[in-house]
Amino acid sequence: MTLLEFRDVHVTYTGSRGRIPAVRGVDLKVEAGTTVGIAGESGCGKSTLAMAVLRLLPKSAEVRGEILLDGEDLLRMGWGRLRAVRWTGASIVFQGAMHSLNAVQRIGRQVAEPMLVHDKDLSPAAAAKRAEGLLERVGLPPSRTRSYPHELSGGQRQRVMIAMALACDPDLIIADEATTALDVMVQAQVLQLISGLVSERGVGMVMISHDLSVLSAVCDTAAVMYAGRIVEQGPAHEVFAQARHPYSAALGAAFPVIGDPAARLRPGGLAGDPPDPARLPEGCSFRPRCAVSVERCGEESPELLRIEGARSSACFVAQEGEPVVIG
Ligand SMILES: Nc1ncnc2c1ncn2[C@@H]1O[C@H](COP(=O)(O)OP(=O)(O)OP(=O)(O)O)[C@@H](O)[C@H]1O
């Protein structure tokens, strides 16, 4: 069952730098009980796409297309309905979300709050008990429920945000670099918890990370974004082990030990920077950094097309069946 579907989603920011097309036509489905990973360097539009789901983008962002949650278009939903959907239908944890904790409220209370708002029949005592259980599941001892945010480390606060995101049993969880700030052991524990929710409770998950080892460890499907578009998509283990887009190949080459959460980005894996979205090059956006480009790549922008099985690539070279692995 398709839980979340992006249909030709575009997000354009308007500001002092003019119009910035941050997301340029994304189509993506998340099935219940599966995890979809979104990979890509900083600035490729991952967070913009995630924030668009729950309409958390600033007013300067114009969103077009459709984002369907269980068939209902989140972009056209009234605010009352949207408020009901947040936390229960879908919740999001993003890196730095820990700064949005209330400084003067104990954390147990903060985790219990969304439960009490969304379930009028729940007693404060039952919500507190449940909050304690959730905090324990993300590795925080029950005594921590009485702490204030400033008494916790950054990693502990991030775990509080993860517990909050799980508080109302959402059908969909979006984790945007949610575990990046955590140390390796805690990260493994949280990833295991999340994977358990996906496989046992049929939750749908979108996991955004620049860390391919995390994505390849937990995702069923992978989508690689570059300059606001998905350039490659397919079963995660295949995408990371045998890329069909030179950008994914270069990203993968930068990770020496895929599957080892301790592995870190090897510097110099991919030379240069992504293009400024306000000044995209002609043709394929990746061409200036691409080692296998051909003449056509400077003239036309390749569409994301199915190349075999469940694998799609937005690369003319891959679409011709040529290898894209570099070096
Ligand atoms: N509020 C904003 N106003 C204008 N431009 C923005 C805004 N937020 C993001 N952008 C621009 O949109 C593009 C996509 O940014 P986004 O944060 O979605 O990328 P990302 O892949 O999630 O990167 P990161 O991993 O660093 O968060 C970038 O060029 C960024 O500078």
From TrEMBL:
One of its GO terms (biological process) is peptide transport. The keyword ATP-binding applies. Transmembrane segments: none annotated. It is found in: Cell membrane. The keyword Transport applies. Its main location: membrane. GO terms for molecular function: ATP binding; ATP hydrolysis activity. InterPro entries: AAA+_ATPase, ABC_Ni/Peptide_Import, ABC_transporter-like_ATP-bd, ABC_transporter-like_CS, Oligopep_ABC_C, P-loop_NTPase. Keywords: ATP-binding, Cell membrane, Membrane, Nucleotide-binding, Transport. SUPFAM superfamilies: P-loop containing nucleoside triphosphate hydrolases. Residues 4-252 form the ABC transporter domain. It is a peripheral membrane protein. GO terms for cellular component: plasma membrane. Belongs to the ABC transporter superfamily. This is Oligopeptide/dipeptide ABC transporter, ATP-binding protein, C-terminal domain-containing protein. It comes from Glycomyces sambucus.
